[in-house]
Q: What sequence folds into this?
């Protein structure tokens, strides 16, 4: 009888050791991007150079039932196979960036910042589509009649962007715990606790 109990306990311990892969640690000093994760969360980073921001796309905003406004943009497409129709309908894709490169401080997108002379506004936004995230960089006038810089020749600094794809079940749990999904640190702290 004692042998049967010991064998049962040993079998349960082996079975109990199986489970989903845990969360990825922070990016390594060797430049790895931390793209592995558990089955419910996918993260990755990208640091596009000025040359990688392509010209041109348009970022549209519906301003009335039959009217829209669009801005020409420079853009970067990030392939993310984990962005499925299920993620689009029930999950969430978050994007953060280091507004001051190398600071380690993550700012959520969308991002707006008034240019030093207060003539125009810098904008970085993103769109989520099946299989990818598109980053947009563009300027908006802050004064009537202002001529904006030629966006096709603007030099864009090399910012690091971090994207996180979260399945609906994890998102619901985060909402239940009142995690502010626009706060990178709160999101990462919650995901690390899983």
A:
């Amino acid at each position: 009888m004692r042998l049967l109990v010991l064998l049962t306990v040993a079998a349960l311990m082996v079975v109990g050791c199986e489970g989903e892969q845990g969360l990825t640690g922070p990016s390594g000093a060797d430049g790895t991007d931390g793209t592995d994760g558990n089955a419910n969360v996918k993260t990755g980073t990208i640091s596009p150079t000025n040359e990688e921001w392509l010209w041109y796309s348009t970022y549209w905003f519906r301003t009335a039932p039959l009217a829209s406004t669009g801005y020409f943009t420079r853009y970067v497409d990030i392939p993310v196979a984990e962005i499925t129709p299920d993620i689009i309908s029930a999950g969430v894709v978050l994007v953060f960036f280091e507004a001051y490169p190398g600071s380690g401080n993550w700012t959520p997108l969308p991002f707006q910042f008034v240019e030093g002379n207060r003539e125009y506004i810098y904008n970085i936004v993103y769109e989520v589509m099946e299989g990818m995230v598109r980053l947009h960089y563009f300027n908006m006038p802050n004064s009537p009649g202002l001529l904006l810089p030629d966006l096709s020749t603007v030099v864009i600094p090399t910012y690091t962007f971090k994207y996180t794809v979260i399945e609906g079940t994890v998102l619901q749990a985060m909402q239940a715990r009142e995690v502010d999904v626009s706060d990178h640190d709160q999101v990462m702290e919650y995901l690390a606790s899983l």
